[in-house]
Amino acid sequence: MKNLQHLFENNRLWAEETTRRRPEFFETLSRQQNPEYLWIGCSDSRVPANEIVGLMPGELFVHRNVGNVVVHSDMNCLSVLQYAVDILHVKHIIVCGHYGCGGVRAALEEKGHGLIDNWLRHIRDIEGRKLLELAALASPEEKVDRLCELNAVAQALNVGNTTIVQDAWARGQDVTVHGWIYGLNNGLAHDLGVNLSSLDELKLFQHG
Q: What 3-state class would DSSP assign to 164?
């Protein structure tokens, strides 16, 4: 039987080091979580949400799936979003894609990948709306990376179009939706110019 003992050892060392640096950390954390941020990102193992933005456990509420997709029929994602907005009162919702995303790459490929093709259909729909822009790019990698950006923007807009966020805006709650992209090759995150704090800003971005 294999019990992953090396991971338990890593965990013990991490807990000891964290306690050494901040003796009160786990006691405080166990009593309450009070994050200001919700991160909606890709499941890719190379995109560790907390580490990218230098935040400790308890400071970032996280939801991840293949391709950082926000679908209005996905009760998992919407439940995370509703809990973050209505219960935790996060002030920022960050939808972060990443360059070289395997989900985006698979969505562009003209072959089947099994069950996941149903999920990737959402990204293919974005490709369909941006065919001319994507076709003008010189290389397949440029096409993948541009669709990674377009997908992150589209999913951020999907967050803004949920009843959860729009109800929060209607009652005057301070919550902003952001669209980001992360570079695997340099570890840097970039703002894609989506920073929406109201329904009017959402409408202006969508129709501007």
A: helix
